[in-house]
Amino acid sequence: MHGAHGISYEVYSMNHDARMEVEKKRERDYIKSQRMVADLDRKVHS
Fold first, then answer.
1. What is the pLDDT of residues 1-46, one digit of tens each?
2. Are 19 and 13 in contact (CB under 8 A)?
3. Could you tell me the pTM of the whole model?
4. Contact by Cβ (8 Å): 7, 21
5. Which residues of 24-46 are buried (b: 16+ CB within 10 A; e: fewer)?
6. How many CA atoms lie within 13 A of 3 on its CB side?
């Protein structure tokens, strides 16, 4: 947790604002990775 997001699990579990920031970052990273996969897929199949 600390390596990927810069906060400990204890802070993550006790601090709602910190938890929301981590989850927002996870969602942004997920969307970014899905776009990368889609772009790669288009390049492979064109």
1. 888 889 999 999 999 999 999 999 999 999 999 999 999 999 999 8
2. yes
3. 0.79
4. no
5. eeeeeeeeeeeeeeeeeeeeeee
6. 0
Q: Which residue has the tokens 């997001």?
A: 5
Residue with tokens 């064109």: 46
Distance CA 26, CA 33 (A): 10
Looking at the chain, how many residues does it have?
46
The upper half-sphere exposure of residue 45, i.e. CA atoms within 13 Å in the direction of its Cβ, equals 6
Q: Is the dihedral of CA 31, 37, 39, 41 positive or negative?
A: negative
Residue type, 8: S
